Each structure stands twice: as structure tokens, then as C-alpha cells.
Amino acid sequence: MKKTKIIFWVVTGILAVMLGIGSIFDAISAPEAVEHVTRIGYPAYIVPFLGVAKTLGIIAILVPGYPRIKEWAYAGIFYDLLGAFYSHIAFGDGPDMWAGFIVGFALIAASYIYYHKLQRETLVAA
């Protein structure tokens, strides 16, 4: 169980940092974040909403307990990343942009899998 817990927290920590930095810039409508989102055709007013939603999702994943909220948070973060990935592909951004998305998908998947593995191990140990 200790190994599972370490892997979960390392992967989830990296995910939280990776998404958290961008979500804070989105939440405060930093000019770079607004320019990035408007460049691919979205309105500027969506930026702070997405930033706050991502920040809340990250908090939900990091806070112990609340399994139903965690499930929704994982789903929301996955759909946010999937929508951003699709938007960049549709806009014409090439494969050089895809690496960050692939890493993000791998981190979300690993965090989700190890979260459930940790939950099972906790139930068996109890």
C-alpha cells in the first residue's frame, strides 16, 4: 500500500502543478492566457471560468475523501484537456504541440488508476 500511495501522490502532484499553473493564469485572466485562448477562436470571457473550474477540480482531487466529487473532478479535467487538444488540432497546430497533451492524459490516467487502486487497498486493509 505504501508504494501505491507514493506513486499516487507523485503522479497527482505533478498533474496538479502542471494544470495548476495554467489554471491560475486563466483564473486571473493573464494576458498570455487570454491571447492563447482567443488565438484559437474562443471568447476571452471563457478564460476565467475555465481557470476557476480547473482550480476547483485540482483541489477536489487533492483533498482526501469525497469520492463522488473526485470522480466528477477527474472527468472534468479529462474533458477540459480533451477539448483543448481537439481545439488545437482543429486550429491546425501540429504534432509539436501534442506532447504536453499526451503527458497530461498519461498523468490523469495514472492518477485516476492509482486513486482507485489505493481505495481498494484501503478497503482490504480495513
From TrEMBL:
Principal location listed in the UniProt entry: membrane
TM regions (residue ranges): 7-25, 45-65, 72-91, 97-115
Record key words, sorted: Membrane, Transmembrane, Transmembrane helix
Compartments where found: Membrane
Top-level taxon of the source organism: Bacteria
Topology of the protein relative to the lipid bilayer: Multi-pass membrane protein
Protein name in UniProt: DoxX-like family protein
Upper classification of the organism: Bacteria, Pseudomonadati, Bacteroidota, Cytophagia, Cytophagales
